[in-house]
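Worked problem 6 (solution included).
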Amino acid sequence: MNKLNIIQKVLEVIQETLPISDGTIKKDCGQVDSEVVTPTNDTEDEQAIKGLSKDFAKALIDRDFEHLDSRAEYHLYTVDYLIELIKNNDENSTIKLFNENKIKSKYEDCEFLSITLTAGQEQAEVVYNVRSCVVSADDKYFKLLNKNNKKKNTISAGTPFSTIYTLSVKKERGTWKIGKFKASEENIKIGTHF
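Solution. The predicted structure is:
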């Protein structure tokens, strides 16, 4: 993919995910409704980072191969990270993974372990447990999940499990965005609570 194609694709993604002024959300634009944040001892930045992190987990995990939005979380990324994903053909890889394995998954909950802000309050690292569930998938996908899980617990259809995510976030034009993320290889089988 040449530079012009990458720039056109990034602009297309950004344009599709811009908020619409009348309060409506464009169908299939990848927007995720944020939860109402209850008052806490968190700073305004920490509340915003938690909201971003929850939206990210929901967009990344609440997916169904039959109605797949492979760019659901793209509006949450920094422009630099979005360019990197487009260069690496992330959208097609996501489509291939979900379609080949017939995956239907859902987000359940999350628990924040730490939020570490830099001195300038412009960047942060977030570590949190995300509980999710694979509602259905081909057997080969469950074998892969359990292999990564080092067979500590067996994950099957409907089994809630948690994965630790580490997000590098930073302010981009005054809004917190995800600059990189990684998920733990190992999943932990859990019940209904952390």
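Discussion: The first helix runs from residue 3 to 16.
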